[in-house]
Amino acid sequence: MSDDKNSSDAYISLKNLLSESLFRDLILFCFLFFLVISQNWTDIILLVFPLITFGFSLFFRIINTNKWRTEFDNKFIIYNPFGIEKIQANRFFFSALFQLILIFWIGAESLYHPQLLSLYLPYFNLLLIFSYSFGFFWIFIDLWKYSKLEIVYNENDKEMAKNYETIVSFLSMKNFKLIILSNFLIFIGFNIFNMIFTFLFLQSPTMGIQLNLPGTGVLITSSIIFITLITSPAITIISLVLNYRELNTFSKEELEKVLKPFPKNAQFIITENIKALNDKLKEK
Fold first, then answer.
1. In angstroms, what CA-CA distances link 22 with 6, 19, 82, 267?
2. Domain span holding position 20
3. Which DSSP symbol is given to 228?
4. Does 170 reside within a domain?
5. Residue pLDDT, tens place only, 235-268
6. Is the CB of residue 32 less than 8 Å from the CB of residue 51?
7. What integer pLDDT is reported at residue 84 of this predicted model?
8. Higher-confidence position of 245 and 12
9. Cystine design at 63: which of 85, 203, 236, 275 (Cβ 3.0–4.6 Å)?
10. Taking the CB of residue 112, how many other CB atoms lie within 10 A of it?
11. Alpha-carbon span 146 to 143, nearest angstrom
12. pTM for this one?
């Protein structure tokens, strides 16, 4: 990372955070969100689902927009602590839009076809929880493939051209299985319980929690909807933090061992660059 880049980009301004793709996502999401709230929702709990999902999409979109801050002029280091952030942002964005469309649809049915609402509510209940929880599980499917700290070095001497490529740190298969399994069980568990309660409330509506829809409609749901709302993003945050820590957990000795086959000048440049990413190495 060049000195000019370090000095001029010591902080991230609002201008640096914005990009064309970020504006596109914001405009499209806000347009659909305003269409939904124009239906005069009194219970806003359902609107929180797409807002949280879109918040995660923005998080990954901003990281992707500023990914160049972890790239260096020599392009030796490939650093992906959260996988491919662009893919993660797109997945969350798709999930958020799908949830907004679902909510707009059920709101419109409640306003214009309340007599048919009881036919659609079970499907809405199932699809909302599925789309919300699946969005948080989806990002971990291929995390092990892209989450890594990799060094790629190409010598410029054409007569003695030699390529060096090695992975300094990556998400171990053991931890990947732990992350994917825990998130999968949560995803499946919430949807199974939601399915059971949804069909149970068809027989005994008084047992459920009532949420007012636009117009005269009422959604009968269970506490699963609130548990899923909080637990899915919480588990995702914990999983991402654990992955980030593992990716950045390596000693200076381990790094020197990995860099041993590299030319001396490349070893020095790569070590200094990695120190810019890993604060623990700076202290040693």
1. 24, 5, 18, 37
2. 3-153+160-278
3. H
4. yes
5. 999 988 888 887 777 666 767 777 777 777 777 7
6. no
7. 84
8. 245
9. 85
10. 10
11. 6
12. 0.80
Inside any domain, residue 105:
yes
Average pLDDT, the chain: 80
**CA pair distance 139, 80, nearest whole angstrom:** 14
Place of tokens 């069980």: 185
The one-letter code for the residue type at 2 is S
As to burial, measured by CB atoms within 10 angstroms (0-12 exposed, 13-18 middle, 19+ buried), residue 168 is buried
Domain presence at residue 271: yes
- pLDDT over 70 at 218, yes or no: yes
Cα Rg of the chain (Å, integer): 24
Tell me, yes or no, whether 284 lies in a domain: no
In the chain, how many domains are there?
1
Nearest to 133 by CA among 253, 210, 11, 224: 224
Dump pLDDT digits (tens) for 137-188. Answer: 998 888 777 777 777 666 554 333 344 456 666 667 777 788 888 899 999 9
Q: Look at residue 167 and give its three-state secondary structure.
A: strand
